[in-house]
Every structure is written in structure tokens, then in C-alpha cells.
């Protein structure tokens, strides 16, 4: 296990298109493990491989629960070569990103998505998600194509920096809001 450096938005690698994963080996599973650990250490709920400088189509998500859906199950997944194959409805929510620390803004996303991809062993998987889980999937898949949430804010005036009085208050903000980071 190792903590990986999360690139910030001044890094041009975040704007590149990631490659399809073709090798489902130990190195891929170790990368996913390290991404989960790094995301957790940074208090995030989603992370894409290009955010740690690896241009491969891999995302990890860990959402304790969706506060908008009472009683929702925790959502934890590592997805390889994810693709949205079905989508419906729309929702607007405030998003943030570990690569754009402190910034939040409103983004319009599909309310529900069906995503096809593979697990860390290459086995095909299909996931249907709604609410925050769906937002997170769309946000992370965008990273694989070099797209950041700031490209998609519905109204730039909603984009704001949270000036944390202390690191802890930002952490609490993130946890209470349970927003995509
Ligand atoms: Zn992000």
C-alpha cells in the first residue's frame, strides 16, 4: 500500500484521454488498492487513475451512503473501462474534485445511469446507479476523457472556493455535504 500524489488541475496530464486497460494483472489491482487508500486519506469519494498520473481507464468510488436517499446502501466499486450505456433524467448538485481542492460548483448530470465495464480481473460488470452514485460515476468517467467538473458547471456564478477556517472544517463540510470530490 502506498499513498499516491493526486495531481491538481494545473497539470496537463489531467486533460489527456486515458487508454483502455488490456492487462488485468497484479499491478492493476495494486493501483486500485492504492487509489482507494489515497482517496480515503484525502477524504474523497471518487478517484480516477489519471488523477494519480496513470492514463488508464480505471476509476474507484466509495460512498458511505447517499444522503439524498434515506437508507441507501454504501456504494463501493473499482471499475475498469467503464462506459455509460443508458441514462435518464437529470439532476443538479454541487460537485467538488480532489484535483481542484476547495472549489465547488453546480453541475447538471443524468439522474440515473447504467454503466458497463469490467472488474479488476477482467470480468464484465454492469451497474445501475441513481442520485449521488450516478453523479460520481459520471464525474469519474469524465476524468478518463480529460474532462473536469468545472467544464460543466451550469452557471459559473455557482463556482466558489470554500475557505476552510481550519482543515477540519473543510473535511466536515465534505462529509456533511457528501459531495463528489
Ligand atoms: Zn474529480
What's this model, at a glance?
The chain is α+β, with helices and mostly antiparallel strands and 181 residues long. The protein has 3 helices and 8 strands. The longest helix is centred in the first third of the chain and has 16 residues, at 26-41.
Distance between the termini: 22 Å
The overall strand count is: 8
CATH class category:
Alpha Beta
Strand content: 25-35%
Into which percent range does the helicity of residues fall? 10-25%
- Sketch the major β-sheet: 5 strands, antiparallel
At the fourth CATH level, what is the homologous superfamily?
Answer: Peptide deformylase
* Average of per-residue pLDDT values: 90
Q: What order do the helices and strands come in, and which of them pair?
A:
Layout: H1 26-41, E1 46-48, E2 58-63, E3 75-88, E4 91-97, E5 100-109, E6 112-118, E7 124-130, H2 131-143, E8 160-161, H3 167-177
Antiparallel strand pairs: 1-2, 2-3, 3-6, 4-5, 5-8, 6-7
This protein binds zinc ion.
Question: Characteristics of this structure?
Answer:
5-stranded antiparallel β-sheet, 181 residues, 3-stranded antiparallel β-sheet, globular, Peptide Deformylase, 8 strands, binds zinc ion, alpha+beta
